Amino acid sequence: MQLYIGNKNYSSWSMRPWVLLKQAGIAFDEVMVRFDAFTPESRFKASLANVSPTGRVPVLVDGDLTVWDTLAIAEYVAEKFPQKHLWPQDVALRANARSVCAEMHSGFGAVRNHFPMNVEAELPEVGARLLKEEAGVRADVERIVAMWTALLEAHGGPLLFGEFTIADAYFAPIVMRFKTYGVPVPPAIAAYMKRVTELPGVAAWIAGALAERDFLDFEEPYRSQA
To answer: Do 91 and 34 form a contact (C-beta atoms < 8 A)?
Structure first.
């Protein structure tokens, strides 16, 4: 299989299936499509023109099959490799895990817009200001913390549904955002975030992001290039 991704420092949607495959020990070839712009004439769009109908990343190519949505990729991989137990095995827990992933897939717009993923940056002052100024950011953070708390308490950790599942891969970019912007969280949530960053799949993504050293001004609303 081939997984087309964008810059590891910035591409939160690419991070989800990459971490899922890496952490589950599923072999794939990474195809990096560097962000340069998202206009129709950009190299990024040209590189994906014959790969994805949406011209976006991530895209999973498996033989003649192309899967171009993050949640669809997760579902496909879970079906292709049932022995990996990427969803919880219990039907009720599986429905719950799908629900929280779908909520992430379609929601939390304030956190996405105001806290863009930037793995190598440290912006706690920006985070503090936006948490003060933006009610939507506060509401999203409160919901995520409440969700994680309930899941960790219900399943006893160490991850959201006990062992690693698609849900942890899906929220890994949120962990990155909370770290970058210094979002204050309760001790139990801070411990969960630490466990996520120490997962081999997540640690490998972070290492790749830190190695890029590729400053893209259109992905940097809070910094200028030194």
So the answer is: no
